[in-house]
User: Which sequence fits this backbone?
């Protein structure tokens, strides 16, 4: 049995490069950018009028002129005009190009207009006011979005502005989620007394959807022949297999034996943690550290690197192991640094086993500090308890039997909450 720290280190040593694809920019939200996005021109690309009003030469206002003859109008989206008489003014609209021979914009609220004359009714203005100057945001060739950024709606606007109709993003892994167990039936079926409906597989589907990863799912019965046949096929077709169940020490927990018989190298089995202690992880490729980075083209086309995450079947165990280990592995493979969160333990917690404890908690913000309050559940099979919590606080393995209120620990948050 290995520690949580050791398990995390092993997971992060085995990243996989899924390749790059080009997608329409409007479909790229949530994907990982795999190219720098560069300004194709200055931002803004011209001296842009920032308020509706009149454009003048400041020096005339400075020397006491308050009445300006309106020489013309510059709407947004039109070719730049030139004011011929420097003592005149131009009416200008927000978003328009600042006319030649003007350098300051006075908003309509600060003037009065009588026929073709605009009179300034305020005592002070500033030279260059209400103008968004060319290049003041970003200059041409500046990197606007860095490679390995997770694309959000904010990035979509920038992609549109620079004319990136398609964008290079990391390919998502091809994933099969497999549930096991003769006691499981479909969601739309009525269970007999000895049966339960499948839930873990759909929990995993949803956890992957949060990462914008599509997946397929299947259910296998507790028979070695079936497991051997189906898993052998999945190993050839998918980048990742996620299992729920059949990895403990029960008489029908055949999965570790079957996986190793199919050539899957075990990286570890059992982690000193609660919940999720029987977690099993393996790979079909022996030297997977930076495997795709140091492999030539011919080898890439013939090798299939499949990673296997086999989680215990209890719902809380499946959930926390996916968040702590698969999420970390995915982010590392994508060259994304996951956000590390911590919280202050809000109550004393007694925990007898010398294991890392992933404790369900509610999170509250008090006086600018994030406080984690334990949620009482009924063990790792208590699926409904997930709905009462916001995440897990990671209490490290220690000899002492209690964790003290006020100490700070890592948080794995799965629910958004209001501060």
Assistant:
């Amino acid at each position: 049995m290995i520690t949580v720290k050791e398990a995390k280190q092993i997971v992060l040593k085995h990243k996989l490069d899924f390749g790059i694809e080009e997608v329409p920019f409007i479909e790229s939200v949530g994907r990982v950018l795999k190219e720098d996005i560069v300004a194709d021109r200055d931002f803004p690309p011209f001296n842009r009028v920032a308020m509706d009003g009149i454009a003048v030469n400041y020096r005339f206002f400075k020397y006491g002129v308050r009445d300006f003859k309106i020489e013309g109008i510059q709407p947004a989206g039109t070719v730049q005009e030139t004011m011929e008489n420097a003592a005149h003014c131009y009416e200008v609209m927000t978003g328009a190009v600042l006319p030649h021979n003007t350098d300051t914009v006075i908003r309509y609220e600060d003037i009065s207009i009588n026929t073709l004359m605009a009179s300034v009714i305020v005592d002070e203005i500033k030279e260059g006011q209400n103008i968004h100057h060319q290049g003041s945001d970003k200059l041409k060739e500046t990197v606007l979005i860095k490679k390995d950024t997770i694309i959000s709606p904010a990035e979509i606007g920038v992609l549109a502005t620079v004319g990136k109709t398609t964008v290079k993003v990391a390919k998502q892994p091809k994933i099969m989620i497999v549930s096991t167990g003769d006691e499981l039936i479909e969601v739309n079926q009525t269970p007999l007394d000895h049966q339960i409906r499948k839930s873990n597989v759909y929990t995993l589907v949803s956890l992957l959807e949060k990462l914008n990863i599509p997946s397929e799912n299947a259910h296998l019965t507790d028979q070695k022949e079936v497991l051997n046949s189906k898993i052998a096929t999945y190993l050839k077709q998918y980048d990742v297999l996620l299992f729920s169940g059949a990895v403990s020490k029960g008489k029908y927990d055949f999965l570790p034996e079957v996986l190793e018989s199919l050539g899957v190298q075990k990286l570890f089995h059992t982690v000193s943690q609660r919940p999720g202690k029987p977690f099993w992880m393996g790979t079909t490729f022996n030297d997977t550290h930076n495997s795709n980075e140091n492999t030539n083209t011919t080898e890439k086309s013939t090798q299939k690197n499949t990673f296997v995450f086999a989680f215990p079947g209890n719902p809380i165990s499946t959930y926390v192991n996916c968040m702590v280990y698969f999420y970390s592995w995915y982010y590392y493979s994508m060259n994304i640094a996951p956000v590390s969160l911590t919280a202050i333990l809000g109550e004393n917690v007694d925990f007898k086993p010398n294991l890392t404890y992933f404790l369900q908690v509610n999170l509250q913000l008090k006086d600018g500090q994030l406080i984690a309050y334990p949620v009482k559940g009924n063990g790792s099979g208590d699926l409904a308890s997930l709905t009462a919590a916001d995440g897990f606080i990671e209490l490290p393995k220690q000899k002492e039997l209690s964790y003290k209120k006020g100490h700070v620990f890592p948080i794995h948050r799965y629910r958004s909450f209001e501060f």
User: Anything to note?
Assistant: Residues 288-303 have pLDDT under 50 and may be disordered. The CA atoms of residues 316 and 394 lie 14 Å apart. The chain has eight helices and 28 strands. Residues 315-333 form the longest helix (19 residues).
